[in-house]
Design brief:
Length: 163
Amino acid sequence: MTIHDIQKDSVSFVCCFISSLHMSDRDDVVHSVLNRYITFSYNPPHNRHTVLAAFVLSSQSQPNCKVIGLATGTKCHPMVKYPVRGEALHDCHAEIVARRAALRWFLEEIARHHDSQQSPWICLDSKSGKYRIRAGVRLWLYISTLPCTPICFFRLYSSISTS
């Protein structure tokens, strides 16, 4: 499967990045996300749109980016569709599910680090006694389309500035 195949499967890829970062860094992140995504057998239903989101770590000391959370999704379920036993997620936005996956990865990485005292991504801060991302490691958020939140901020800003 190629990037062209993914695009024709109704996943749109619009990438927004901070312009001060090097193009090669951005390209590496995007390629890491897309290459990871195409390893899965998921295809959106015909004529349906889905959002792809991922959390990625990059470092000058590591040859490849590390995708630590990846998800697709587009909506919240209405309250009337909540399962009685809690066996489904309420918020299925890709960014939320990818964040949950990234948090799980961080917890697992802390456990691995605790056992072996080695991780290229995290370290134990001797001053605070807490784990942190190593110096030189960047955390990226990739979203294939603009999130809903900027619209909310624009509305909030508009209402504040007119009052």
